[in-house]
Amino acid sequence: MANKILTTHVGSLPRPQKLLDVAQKRTLGQQFDQTAFDREMKNAVAEVVKHQKEVGIDLINDGEIGHTMGWAYDYGAWWSYVVKRLGGVKAQNVSLWATHLTAHTKAAMAPKDFVVGDWTSRRDMAKFQDAYMDPNSGCGLPEQFMTNNSPLVDGPVTYKGRADIKRDIDNFKAALKASGVPTEGAWMNSIAPASCARMPNEHYKTEEELLYACADAMREEYKAIIDAGLIVQLDDPAIGENWDQHADEPSVAGYRRYTKMQIDALNHSIKGLPSNKIRFHLCWGSWHGPHTTDIPMKHIVDLMLAVNCDYYSFEAANVRHEHEWKIWKDVKLPAGKKILPGVVTHSTNLIEDPELVADRICQFADAVGRDGVIASTDCGLGGRVHPQIAWAKLKALSDGAALATKRLWRKKAA
Question: 23-59: b or e for each residue (b if 16 or more CB lie within 10 Å)?
Answer without folding.
Answer: bbebbeeeebeeeebeebbbbbbbbbbebbeebebbb
